[in-house]
Amino acid sequence: MAPHPDRRLGPGRRRILAATFATAADATARRNPHAFYYFGRPNEPGLRGGQVTFGQDITLDGVRFVRDLRVSGPIIFTPDGRATATLTAETGGRTHEVKLTWTAFSTRPALSGTFDGVPFD
Predict the structure, then answer these.
(1) What own/partner pairs with CB < 8 Å and gap ≥ 24 does 114-118 have?
(2) pLDDT for 38
(3) What is the mean pLDDT of residues 42-58?
(4) Which residues pair with 63 in a beta bridge?
(5) What residues are paired with 112 via a beta bridge?
(6) Three-state DSSP state, 94
(7) Taking a C-beta distance cutoff of 8 angstroms, is the pair 55, 13 a contact?
(8) pLDDT-based confidence at residue 46 (cuts at 50, 70, 90)
(9) Paired residues of 36 in beta bridges
(10) How far apart are the C-alpha atoms of 78 and 56, rounded to whole Å?
(11) Residue 26 buriedness (CB in 10 A; 0-12 / 13-18 / 19+)
(12) What is the DSSP letter of 3?
């Protein structure tokens, strides 16, 4: 799922942003209250590496949804069904600060936040 193009974020940054969101969305999907099954494990591995820890919130530690991007940081749920993540995304020897807010467990989430301090919608 590619983010809406933003003139302030070039194609490379949008790809990193999309992969970072996919990583966070994959972790949150594991705790979807509308899912058919729910394992309730306190932690699980990331798809291609790293660790996802579940508590009241979700913590990513070097999680790899795609091979060349490691994502770390907390994902916090609000009572109104929003998810807010403050993440670091590491790829190609660089670290990016990514803040995301979206409607959790939605099939068409409206994503907003910042990428290295640059706001996007």
Answers:
(1) 115/9, 115/13, 115/16, 115/17, 116/13, 118/6, 118/8, 118/9, 118/13
(2) 57
(3) 82
(4) 71
(5) 101
(6) strand
(7) no
(8) confident
(9) none
(10) 11
(11) middle
(12) P
- Residue in the block written with tokens 């913590």: 59
What digits encode the pLDDT tens for the residues 55-110? 889 999 999 999 999 999 999 988 888 999 999 999 999 999 999 999 988 878 78
The DSSP result for 44-80, as a single string, is EE-SSSSEEEESSSEEEEEE-SSTT-EEEEEEEE-TT
Q: What letter represents residue 13's amino acid?
A: R
Bridge partners (DSSP) of residue 83 are 77, 102
CB atoms within 10 A of CB 75: 23
Three-state DSSP class for residue 32: coil
